[in-house]
């Protein structure tokens, strides 16, 4: 789908360049000339989005399927290294896209730029299929989404059942070949979905449920519980992405001196590359230098849990917003002092290098949180939910984007009342973007506190119970 979308974009650009008059007359004849320039890109980007939505969750889950060997299972850091290097390579490809491909599109034409993208997608598709004989391919046995809805319906239908305090007295429907005999005690109301009331009426001769919408397996119940358990922690990740969905730092960079030397000037939109570079450097150093050095100093293997790394990533995001607010406060003061209050397009005598700390910190924060969040979902969910675990990241980003728009519009409406200048005014020198960032910092701080509460309520992750028991042994 991504390949088809890129081809459509390329074809649209080529046709627009070579057949503009013909297309215009054709559109006028169909009376859709007003909508065609909008509908065609929407259709093309829709195809790309569908393809991208299918690739990202599946590729992460497919990659974890390859780590099923005994050597990987005995190596506790294998999953962590996988996600770290995956994020690092993704960031590296983004770096190439924002430099090399953007340069080609700007200086050599959009057609050539999209043509290169088409060839790259085609090459990756061919390369993927060439490796087919070497992949570990797990066959899906049932629909996960259907199973989750079956648990909800079955638990509602069986809502009148009473749960005994002794789970041994209850007969649960166990999936064939499953090692889970009884459901967990958390979210006990869902356990009613897998209670066998009458084996002769509820089960077929081969042990399967006669009506899966009235009786589910213990595995299905635990899958829904696993999803519901991570929702609070997932929501803190959604809030942490709110700040990343705005381009205000680009406006700041536009109004600042971006020259390096006397001739070279960094484009304002390219400052985001420093965040990508810092993420790549951090991920490489974390696994190859920081952890080995810490293990050598302490005399024992050092490993930070996924929740610890996510928490540190949230703290760095909070710190990055604070730094950005401080820099904006100074930038605005300099602009007013120099008499540029009514001229937001002018460049003030302040170096844009002051924006680098925010980008560097935000890059490390994003790398830490994204990799640990992926690892957390994959490790906590059953194997059958690997794709759902990967999709949660994308859904969180989409919800975060909507929340960012809501917060921006709310602050804009509240601060411009009474004829006052909005904090997020189009005139960056008259607005108060520093106050806007401080609001974000406050939200980030509250989000960190909520994250701590959610982590305590969640309890230990899989494998942490064993580590705690081993540490408590004399």
TrEMBL record:
Membrane-traversing stretches:
35-55, 82-104, 110-131, 266-290, 310-327, 347-369, 389-408, 435-459
Intracellular or extracellular location(s): Membrane
Coiled-coil ranges (or none)? none
* Topology within the bilayer: Multi-pass membrane protein
Q: What does the entry give for GO biological process?
A: transmembrane transport
Q: Name one GO cellular component term.
A: plasma membrane
InterPro entries from the UniProt entry: MFS_trans_sf, POT_fam
Q: Does the keyword Repeat apply?
A: no
Q: Which UniProt keywords apply?
A: Membrane, Transmembrane, Transmembrane helix
Q: Which GO terms describe its molecular function?
A: transmembrane transporter activity
Q: Which family does it belong to?
A: Belongs to the major facilitator superfamily. Proton-dependent oligopeptide transporter (POT/PTR) (TC 2.A.17) family.
| Name of the molecule in the record | Protein NRT1/ PTR FAMILY 1.2
Specify the species: Capsicum annuum
- Which lineage do the record's taxonomy fields give for this organism? Eukaryota, Viridiplantae, Streptophyta, Embryophyta, Tracheophyta
